[in-house]
Write a structure and sequence with these properties.
- The protein is an alpha/beta fold.
- The chain folds into two domains: 31-288, Aspartate Aminotransferase, domain 2 (3-Layer(aba) Sandwich); 293-418, Aspartate Aminotransferase, domain 1 (Alpha-Beta Complex).
- The protein has helices at residues 31-37, 47-64, 78-89, 103-114, 132-142, 165-171, 220-227, 256-263, 275-291, 293-313, 340-351, 378-394, 404-418, and strands spanning 20-21, 70-75, 95-100, 118-123, 146-150, 152-153, 158-159, 175-179, 198-200, 213-218, 329-333, 353-354, 366-370.
- The longest helix has 21 residues, at 293-313.
- The termini are far apart.
Length: 419
């Protein structure tokens, strides 16, 4: 007799713990974004769906503070847009100047080298930022095709000034690229005012969404360079297809010229759009713009001030140049004699709160606490401080004044509420 019983599945249905993600990213996604992701799928050329694509472009123009026509999404994590920007701008042998003040400046260097570019870096110690005069000096000397900078490097919690970058690049006929993965939606990214050519980001930090879609905006100057390298895929090329006269882009998936044709009125097929991620990105932008950019930036700055006040009241020492600290991530030295990873583990297991460590020369030396996006709220700041104090006390750290951390943070909020 045949047994028609199905064998048991080897794994249970997903049931992840409800953690509060207060590290440097990812963070908890806004519930509206999660609901949007559950919307029904549509075909990528359905008129309803292409309308959503156009709406997403319009929304992100406002978020990036730009009028750039070429403002859209790259399907992939934030790094996908970084790579798309660099591989689409750089030919082998091109010169590039890169600002290096943390892990993600080193990432730009790695990607540029893979593109075959000749890389010159302008360096600062981790915990500092780059003087814009030093950037200009390097650009004047090297005369690069591209100048690339990270806006906010979460590995060091530093925010790089960019207000002169566009001016410098135009003076020396270079194109600017900025990685704003960690700042868009939480710190002002003034694409047009600063004269930036390409800016990219992700959803999983201040935008309050999941990782997997990468907003990008491209100036007309940069678009001209990219379209000069246009190569239309043979399987979809029409007899009158116009390719560029410069060497074609060395990646197919990250070819911005083909992506721009896909997001244009031509709808020239490149890949199958990540429908649910587009829904997520669209709703992230709606949430940001409904709050208002200035109000959102102020909320992040207030949470930063409250977190700093609480950590200082606890007797901890902050990391980095306070004048250039990101408002959405705070670095703290791990006290001598305290096992930083054990503290992180107890925060997670005892309180369901995640905070971050760091990389490279800062590995094992600092914690990083994020206050961004949906998590950037008063009660989350207070909960994180209370949990951190309790764990540190249990690990033998002498708290300067028990209970003072939450009181100091709330005092910052109350002062603002009275103003």
């Amino acid at each position: 007799m045949t047994d028609n019983k199905k064998p048991p599945l080897p794994f249970d249905e997903l049931d992840p713990p409800q953690r509060l993600l207060m590290g440097p990213g990812p963070i908890n996604a806004h519930p509206r974004v999660l609901r949007a992701m559950a919307s029904p799928l549509l075909g990528q050329f359905d008129p309803e769906f292409t309308t959503y694509m156009n709406e997403t472009m319009a929304l992100y123009r406002a978020v990036f503070q730009t009028e750039n026509r070429w403002t859209f999404l790259v399907d992939g994590t934030a790094r996908s847009a970084i790579e798309a920007a660099l591989v689409s701008l750089l030919e082998p042998g091109d010169r590039i100047v890169i600002g290096n003040f943390g892990r993600f400046g080193l990432l730009l260097t790695e990607i540029a080298e893979r593109c075959g570019a000749e890389v010159t870096t302008v360096d600062a110690e981790w915990g500092e930022v780059l003087p814009q005069d030093a950037i200009e000096e390097a650009v004047a000397k090297i005369r690069p095709r591209v100048v690339a900078l990270v806006h906010g490097d979460t590995s060091t919690t530093m925010a790089q000034p960019l207000d002169r970058l566009g001016e410098i690049c135009r003076k020396y006929d270079a194109l600017s690229y900025v990685d704003a993965t960690a700042t868009l939606g939480g710190i002002a990214v003034k694409t047009d005012e600063w004269g930036l050519d390409i800016v990219t980001s992700g959803l999983q930090k201040c935008m309050g969404g999941p990782s997997g879609s990468a907003p990008i905006t491209i100036s007309d100057r940069a678009a001209e360079r990219i379209f000069a390298r246009r190569h239309i895929e043979k399987g979809i090329a029409s007899p009158d297809a116009q390719s560029g006269n410069a060497p074609f882009i060395r990646s197919n998936y990250f070819d911005l010229a083909m992506l721009m044709d896909y997001w244009s009125e031509k709808r020239l097929n490149h890949h199958t759009e990540a429908t649910s991620m587009l829904y997520a990105a669209r709703e992230c932008a709606r949430v940001v713009l409904q709050e208002g950019l200035d109000a959102r930036f102020a909320r992040h700055a207030l949470a930063s001030d409250a977190m700093v006040a609480g950590l200082t009241a606890m007797g901890l020492t902050l990391f980095g140049d306070a004048a250039h600290k990101m408002t959405n991530v705070t670095g703290i030295y791990i006290p001598q004699g305290i096992d930083g990873e054990r503290v992180r583990a107890r925060m997670r297991t005892d309180f369901e709160i995640e905070i971050g460590s760091s990389f490279g020369p800062l590995h094992g030396k600092i914690w990083r606490i994020g206050t961004m996006g949906y998590n950037c709220r008063k009660h989350n700041v207070a909960l994180t401080l209370a949990a951190h104090e309790a764990v540190l006390k249990g690990e033998g750290f002498k708290i300067a004044a028990p209970g003072a951390a939450v009181e100091a943070a709330l005092a910052v909020y109350h002062e603002k509420e009275k103003a």
